[in-house]
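Hi there,

I know you've been waiting on this one. I reran it after we fixed the sequence typo, so this is the corrected version. Both the input and the resulting structure follow.
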Amino acid sequence: MFAALLASGWLTAVLMAAFWSPIAWRGVPPPPSFLWTAVLLGGALTVPGVTMALLRPGAPLTRHLIAAGQAGISGLLIHLSRGHHETHFHIFGSLAFLAFYRDWRVLLTASAVVAVDHLTRGTFLPWSVYGEAVPSLGRSLELIGWVAFEDLFLIGSCVRGQREMCEIARRQASTEEASERHARSEEACEREAALTAAANEASRAKSDFLANMSHEIRTPMTAVIGYADLLLDPGLTASERLDHVQTIRRNGEHLLSLINDILDLSKIEAGKMTVEHIACSPSQLIADVSSIMRVRARDKGLAFEVEFATPIPETIVSDPTRFRQALLNLVGNAVKFTGEGSVRIVASCDPPETPEPRLTLEVADTGVGLSPEQRSRLFQPFEQADNSTTREYGGTGLGLAICRRLAQLMGGDITVQSLPGRGSSFFMTVATGPLEGVKRLSGLVEAQGPDADAEAHAASRRAAPLRCVVLLAEDGVDNQVLISTVLKKAGASVEIVENGRLAVERALAAEAAGAPFDVVFMDMQMPELDGYGATALLRQKGYRGPIVALTAHAMAGDRERCLTAGCDDFLTKPIHRAKLIDAARCWAEKRRTLEPSEAGVPPLRSDFADDPDMAEIIDAFVAGLVGRAEALRAEVAGGRRAEVQHLAHQLKGAAGGYGFAPITAVSAELELAAARGASVVEMGELVARLAGLCGRARRD
């Protein structure tokens, strides 16, 4: 607005110079050109203020330039009118307009320009100001006085206006702050209400879970304790005693499955659950689950079917244990919640050319079905479709939550379609890995490939006596009796020690005597020296026999901790009889075939042993081999395949250069295994072979 007013003053000056000034200055020697004076002087007074108004509107310098220009234009108009008294009022009008800035300093700038202008021209060019030839200092001072008088009122108005604006701003700010506080208060209340509702819901769910879990645990525990008491009756027949033992075992396995569910959920919640990525047969896993669940379905009078909707790959890259666990849970639920009708497993798979192919397993039943509200809570931990205390089917509410997260870890998911009274269909998808060149099977009969001879051979192998010598390090008397009895009945010879210190002494003594143990089963929690310390000490002393960890710890990271300490394998308590015997057989055979006892095994000599120039550097290389093997063992235990591949590649090249071809060969196997994503167990076996070779390495 002020810039426009200033520009309009310049235009007025130009028009006045063109039409009025020649008349007003008639008879008086005028300046050379009124028009050029208006254009040039008016432009000099107008352009700076207008330019600054465009570039920096509202800036202090802009306001003062406009004020000076406005006062100058007033003086120019007085000059062009030859001091006509009406034009002097332009000064007072300009000051009044400048007061809209609400900045009293601007008024002082304009007033100073007016005072200097009138004093100068009133003294040296009175015609220009008053239309007279006689200078008049008094008239100039009088004008300045009136300007000052007006300034008093205008400055007072500016100051008062600024105060009012500040007060309005403070009130507005206070109002806005109050509104914001109110809004924040409402948001906080809503947030607190939501958090309270969530906390109440979580508390309710966990309370329900604890009630359910109490029921689920107390039921089998009651059976275990009750039937254990019945076993004390000396009058029991052999048949009754066997029936009681089987009942105790069945309920004990149920308790163990409850504990495993809780451990799985805790690993998942902590982000510590990991899955393997190894080649496995989905059709074989489906067949395993079917063989278990078909019996339960038949007992309930249900039809049980397996169907391949599309051909499925013979092998996929996944975690067979977690795959089987999730599918078994889904099929078990289908059988449990179906009173009549059928349960079906329908398998299908994406085409091989799909960028990220997935295998889909539909588990469909004709059971009770689910409402939309029940489906929304189905995959939440501690939740069940029916949480009432009189529910018919039981369960902890953990199974589906665990299965869905396992499927997600395997690159897929679990979804459900269901209607009350019309059954349910659960869809489990898992990533398959690349399928190019993988054979595809069109039915379960085709998928069950191993022939009868192979099955018979495997069965006969499992039935064969162990024929191995075992050292059992275990401090618990009951566990000593249980584990040694299982191994002895399987054909093994067992020696027992009760702590880690004795285990180290006995293992080393047996090896020194030329009669080493085939396998050491090492409890990891023992007095004096625990299993971790005992295993590490044995490895430091060069013991290369198989050591299998036994531990009640089954949380994420426990397996890796045992392998890092130097163990070759890992079994959790309570010990499963078949797994214990299989571990003893497997590691005893590997001990005899891959790592014979030190007696009768010659040192591994360098091909360059006769070269005197190589002696010193070969000795230095040999001295570092055990450390390299331990570094590889640690990387394998941590599952860091890239580091395993790198270290194996380095050792492969170095060993060949120093004349140890066998070390080069095993290192190459380990490098390839790491590159193709082999399991920790497979790489651990190769590292064990490599460690044995490194321990035997000598220059001469």
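Quick highlight: Confidence is low (pLDDT under 50) at residues 387-394, 449-458, 595-600.

Best,
R. S.
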